[in-house]
Design goal:
mainly alpha
Length: 218
């Protein structure tokens, strides 16, 4: 590995880990919602502001990866056409993701989840706006970070384990850690087998959408 490529990897991985450590701290200490929910408009503004802060932070290591020397082919590799041999097995991975989703619901029922309490306080159009972030934008950005930046330039098995641990930790040290580690492992496997981020982005988006639907309407 040439020095420029090694420098790019070190800088982007350090930046990513530091940002994830911040997310881990914040998500491990959620605000107490019971009986203390803010007014609907304030809650919506807070949720929206959270997205506008967290998304650029997650994109920072991605941008570093693209602009630093030694990463000219990164975007082509991330958005390459998925390998033909993987397409037939995608449904199996998707079903495993559904199992992971069901495990999340079993461990933390909807009535105990803060996001459910939040959504119940929002108006219809506000739910649609926040859901567009959770189900479309966030999966793309998270895949670029966790399965793009953090799996780049590492041996396959270590990359899977490392990215899954970081992915689970980013959501906080709580009841979700093990199911999210399993989910991160599966998404990483999808990325490796397909040799593209596109299938993992699609599965991640489906996972978030189904999670939101199950949590809201279960």
């Amino acid at each position: 590995m040439n020095p420029k490529h090694l420098f790019s990897l070190l800088v982007t991985h350090i930046a990513a880990v530091l940002i994830v450590a911040l997310f881990c701290f914040v998500n491990s200490n959620p605000m107490v919602l019971a009986g203390k929910l803010p007014e609907t408009q304030d809650l919506f503004s807070a949720l929206l502001q959270g997205q506008f802060i967290s998304l650029p932070l997650m994109l920072f290591p991605v941008i570093l990866t693209i602009v630093l020397p030694g990463s000219r082919e990164t975007i082509k590799a991330w958005f390459a056409r998925p390998t033909c041999t993987f397409r037939g097995g995608l449904w199996a991975f998707f079903l495993m993701l559904l199992f992971s989703n069901a495990l999340l619901i079993a461990i933390n029922p909807p009535e105990q989840q803060p996001i459910v309490a939040m959504f119940q306080c929002l108006q219809g159009w506000q739910v649609a706006v926040i859901a567009s972030f959770i189900c479309v934008i966030v999966p793309v950005v998270e895949e670029l970070l966790f399965r793009g930046v953090l799996m780049r330039g590492l041996p396959c098995f270590f990359a899977l384990f490392y990215s899954a641990v970081i992915f689970a930790s980013a959501h906080g040290i709580n009841d979700y850690v093990l199911p999210l580690f399993f989910t991160g492992w599966l998404l990483g496997l999808i990325r490796l087998k397909s040799e593209s981020l596109i299938p993992s982005m699609c599965c991640h988006a489906a996972f978030n959408t189904i999670s939101l639907l199950l949590a809201t309407f279960a």
